[in-house]
Amino acid sequence: xxxxxxxxxxxxxxxxxxxxxxxxxxxxxxxxxxxxxxxxxxxxxxxxxxxxxxxxxxxxxxxxxxxxxxxxxxxxxxxxxxxxxxxxxxxxxxxxxxxxxxxxxxxxxxxxxxxxxxxxxxxxxxxxxxxxxxxxxxxxxxxxxxxxxxxxxxxxxxxxxxxxxxxxxxxxxxxxxxxxxxxxxxxxxxxxxxxxxxxxxxxxxxxxxxxxxxxxxxxxxxxxxxxxxxxxxxxxxxxxxxxxxxxxxxxxxxxxxxxxxxxxxxxxxxxxxxxxxxxxxxxxxxxxxxxxxxxxxxxxxxxxxxxxxxxxxxxxxxxxxxxxxxxxxxxxxxxxxxxxxxxxxxxxxxxxxxxxxxxx
Length: 360
Hints:
By secondary structure, this protein is mainly α. Helix content is 69%, strand content 6%.
């Protein structure tokens, strides 16, 4: 009894890799291998590199925006509702010229990061309402789970690394930072922009490094959650392929039906060629409808004896030819025409049968 319980326990332990069907079903449910940090790192790096290359364009658009604001709008003594809406609309257009390219680059980077990890996938399964998601007990388990601890360590690691690299950049450029108090606004903006771009790109690379580590952890966790027990694999195989016992019964039933159909064709045969004890081949030939004799039944041992018994009951001529019976059993399927290499031997046998039938 104890041995049986132990075997059941080990059979239910999830130690096996997930099958392709399990992976496909999980993907349909939206359960995929994905690290959000990879997408965030790609977005951050893309945005700062984009800012680095279009800094001149943004500077010109800012100048246009402030020039228009101070020259055209500030001198206005009286503003009515129409003028206010006109100013608001023009300000939106100018801000759109500045911000939309950055937002578009972030959207493209986000899509690319997700496509890179999970490919093209559309499913509404995660949006379905599930009471288990708001279960307070399971919520507490998630809060104090190993995954939550890993996420906390990851957050501390990101803050420490990004904060540390930012401090290092500021300390290495401390002279420039302290000199900002004595510079004109243009130089201040240039220096701040350079330092911000440098810190942003460095932080993006640091986050990308951390995200690679996170990706491997997510892969490990994903594979662990997909693991199956031996019983799960058996059940899946049984559900997809059918119960082996039922399948064997169906095949047995099909064999029995095929055997009955074959035996029903034996009385219509012209001759049965035998081994004489192990093989039996029943041939039929109609001169008007067939270009060659066909095998209507064949069998070995018990089936051969049954074919010979039916042939004897219906007075079908039986001819002993051991090599021909063996060769045709291996080469010709039931319902198939005999190959040309057997034409001569079979023609001689049929001629012999027809002579006997004429005498009868």
